[in-house]
């Protein structure tokens, strides 16, 4: 894992999110878990080599941030925002999160098949939040403060984890650094407000959900990505393009690669982003 500060480590080399941990004088706090089974087991072992895990904080409900929780059972207390907890590995018409986790095994973690749990066993206890909260929450472990800031936008239960003593913030997928941004069912206005909130922090290091560790300066780039997507789809609607025309013609694939291990998802991302924005921008508000 990459050492960001003397007490902060992250891994930006895996398929999935950037799982991280912070060591303190009274144990370890884990922030997000690898979705690949053998990587989750290895990360737990490494984290525990620095002391007992006190808390495991998830920044969002998407599979790549939470599936590895299963392999951290008995290691600290899991902390989830209510918006995350309510969506934890929930089957939707568009996605079976369990199958999405499993599809990565043959290509990215074949040894993980031996420890990949059967569906019923997994859902009996996926190791979701034991502490569930709304708004913000502050945890103190040893000499460290962990400010869990509700920063919705990418997801309703999105968190940023600010550790002032290390001058670091873990943003989850509020930041996609130098890779494709997944809009999915996000709320762009809330996402822009989340960027503003994070930018106001006094930090040197920004650990994004995907891509290399960066600085607060990159938040301006992330903002421009969101605004360009929204403006492009709004312009398409203004021209009278149909949903299908918008999906076919609004495309930012040349801008960035897809994050590690999911290059085959490029067209899906472009389609999903354009379609979700089209639907939001053309929806009729309730009561109208």
Could you please describe the fold and organization of this structure?
By secondary structure, the protein is an alpha/beta fold. The protein has two domains: 2-223, Ribonuclease Z/Hydroxyacylglutathione hydrolase-like (Metallo-beta-lactamase, Chain A), CATH 3.60.15.10; 225-282. The chain is 32% helix and 21% strand. It has ten helices and twelve strands. The strands form two sheets. Strands 1-2-3-4-5-6-7 form a seven-stranded mixed β-sheet. Helix 8 packs across helix 10 (266-282). The longest helix has 21 residues, at 218-238. The protein is globular, with a radius of gyration of 19 Å. The mean pLDDT is 96.
Provide keyphrases for this structure.
alpha/beta; 12 strands; Metallo-beta-lactamase, Chain A; 288 residues; 2 domains; globular; five-stranded mixed beta sheet; 21% strand
Write a brief caption for the model.
This protein has 288 residues and is an alpha/beta fold. The chain has ten helices and twelve strands.
Helix-strand layout with pairing:
Elements: E1 2-3, E2 8-10, E3 20-24, E4 27-31, H1 37-48, E5 53-57, H2 63-66, E6 77-81, H3 82-85, H4 97-102, H5 105-108, H6 119-124, E7 131-133, E8 137-141, E9 144-150, E10 159-163, E11 168-176, H7 188-199, E12 205-210, H8 218-238, H9 243-249, H10 266-282
């Amino acid at each position: 894992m990459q050492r960001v500060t003397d007490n902060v480590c992250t891994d930006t080399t895996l398929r999935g999110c950037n799982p991280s941990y912070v060591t303190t004088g009274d144990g370890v706090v884990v922030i997000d878990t690898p979705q690949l089974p053998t990587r989750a087991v290895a990360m737990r072992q490494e984290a525990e080599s620095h002391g007992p895990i006190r808390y495991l904080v998830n920044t969002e409900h998407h599979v790549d941030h939470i599936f590895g929780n299963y392999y951290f059972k008995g290691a600290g207390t899991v902390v989830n925002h209510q918006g995350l907890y309510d969506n934890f590995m929930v089957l939707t018409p568009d996605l079976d999160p369990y199958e999405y986790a499993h599809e990565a095994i043959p290509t990215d973690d074949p040894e993980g098949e031996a420890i990949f749990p059967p569906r019923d066993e997994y859902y009996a206890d996926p190791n979701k939040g034991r502490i569930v909260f709304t708004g913000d929450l502050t945890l103190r472990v040893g000499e460290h403060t962990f400010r869990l800031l509700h920063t919705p936008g990418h997801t309703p239960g999105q968190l940023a984890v600010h550790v002032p003593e290390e001058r670091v913030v873990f943003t989850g997928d509020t930041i996609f650094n130098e890779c494709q941004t997944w809009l999915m069912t996000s709320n762009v206005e809330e996402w822009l407000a989340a960027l503003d909130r994070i930018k106001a922090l006094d930090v040197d290091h920004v650990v994004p959900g995907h891509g290399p560790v960066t600085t607060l300066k990159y938040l301006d780039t992330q903002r421009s990505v969101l605004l360009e997507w929204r403006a492009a789809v709004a312009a398409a609607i203004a021209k009278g393009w149909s949903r299908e025309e918008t999906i076919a013609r609004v495309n930012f694939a040349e801008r960035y690669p897809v994050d590690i291990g999911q290059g085959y998802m490029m067209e899906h991302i472009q389609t999903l982003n354009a379609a979700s924005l089209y639907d939001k921008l053309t929806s009729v508000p309730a009561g109208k």
